[in-house]
Amino acid sequence: xxxxxxxxxxxxxxxxxxxxxxxxxxxxxxxxxxxxxxxxxxxxxxxxxxxxxxxxxxxxxxxxxxxxxxxxxxxxxxxxxxxxxxxxxxxxxxxxxxxxxxxxxxxxxxxxxxxxxxxxxxxxxxxxxxxxxxxxxxxxxxxxxxxxxxxxxxxxxxxxxxxxxxxxxxxxxxxxxxxxxxxxxxxxxxxxxxxxxxxxxxxxxxxxxxx
Length: 211
Description:
By secondary structure, the chain is α+β, with helices and mostly antiparallel strands. The chain contains 6 helices and 10 strands.
């Protein structure tokens, strides 16, 4: 049986589910994360709920069937069913690993009080943090065990390319593994940084976390 990690690993290689308008339902990889991945004309719902319930709710969603899994009606039903919270629908990006050391000077730190670090540790396992002048970058295990990065740039040094340098550095720190990122579509500054650093958009994600 195909797992969530199988689907993610394939997507990182540019191999996606068939664009057949269908929905694949797979078990959660862990108790923390449930949700929806939306690729081109195919969705993946990862949940420990009965797949028959998922398909029954989707049949009752009006409008474009290709968008049903990301519709407010389905996501609201999903949250009610599971008692979980979905904060936003993110754009999902992935960057291939890069050889050699980062091109920006980094120092690994342990700063549990930094807001970005607290956020990362609430969503990921094994979080590591590196600091550069003007910002920090984190790497940790998120959805399906994939390696996820996040960055924070200090307000006074924004628009100087630091964010782009930090997300690019994550690809060097990944030890040969693809690096994933979830970016809110409205966060244009962050989106530009990831795209400029060579990350590519693979789809969208609605992540349902525990309240």
